Amino acid sequence: MGQPHQRDEADAGKPPLGIGMVGYAFMGAAHSQGWRTVGRVFDLPSRPVLAAVCGRDGQAVRAMAERHGWAAAETDWRALIARDDVDVVDICTPGDSHAEIAVAALAAGKHVLCEKPLANTVEEAETMAAAAEGAYQQGRLTMVGFNYRRLPATSLARRMVREGRVGTLRHVRVTYLQDWLVNPEFPLTWRLRREAAGSGALGDLGAHVVDLAQYLAGEPLAGVSALTETFVRERPLPGGTTGGLAAVSAGGLGTVTVDDAALFTARFASGALASFEASRFATGRKNSLRIELNGERGSLAFDLERLNELAYHDHTEPLAHAGFRRILVTEPDHPYLEAWWPPGHGLGYEHTFVHQARDLVHAIAANHRPEPSFADGLQVQRVLAAVEESAAKNSVYTPVAV
Question: How crowded is the C-beta side of 269, counted as CA atoms within 13 Å?
């Protein structure tokens, strides 16, 4: 990397790409980090400019804008998408508003990045995917924010699967476990209300691992058999502004209307088998995502708590010295690492959002559909819907709609 002043001079002649973000809490901060950093790390075809951020609380959103470097603050998302200095609308709001904002932004001629899950229902996701397809004909692009695809280790795993290093896939097993809801006194925030979040651990965590499993396998899930459970069915009502995964209680109780945990088996289109577990009640687990793929020629395993590492077993080696080995994913020829630090110097969670911004900027410049697309997000939504349908029918095997 060059020095900051050299990069500033090089970027000065590049066309600006105005970013407008709706939502400013946990994901808003993460996306801000990505947009603010990407041009100082990667050589981009255009220059991302943090034009405006939007939130309903004027004082809070102005403070966020100042903290994260946004040039302006809005309190109405319609005003944000109408701004001439906004080319990309980045949606970081709860799922109940994704469809309305995305469709309006595309109609206004903007590119759209939308946080996962794409929507709260299949019907909303279908509307968004249809709008995205129409907008693509007008040169407007869309992408879903499944950021775990953007880790160098998971990107390397996808490359190795594509190269045939595991051969024909047999098994995929995934767990995504957290414990921030174990305390029954934690307030009833929007993430625990179906009308705002769509679902609970299933949509919050399950959407990530469904996308990651399909991405690494290179094929879609065809059907599921599922169980879901809500362990704490009433919680204190929240008071004041909530942010991230923190909240305070205002007293009184409300009903939890989403799942606390989801467990399901699945079959890929090829016949490979999969198992998934998503829970926000796994005591002692903070953000534990693990995935393993087993094939005829080898296996790959990834653990988010060791996110610069990938475990690989080559089953074609002689048994006398075969076994899982650690690949330290920090070399310049590993995905995304050509612009970062010397070998052995690892990256972190926040870098996935830098890589996400990089990929979208390049796609816009080339008018090339970025991945994951709204169609990919719709497919994940259909898997989540099949899980809920199966769980409601006492785990009956349920095909994923095509």
Answer: 10
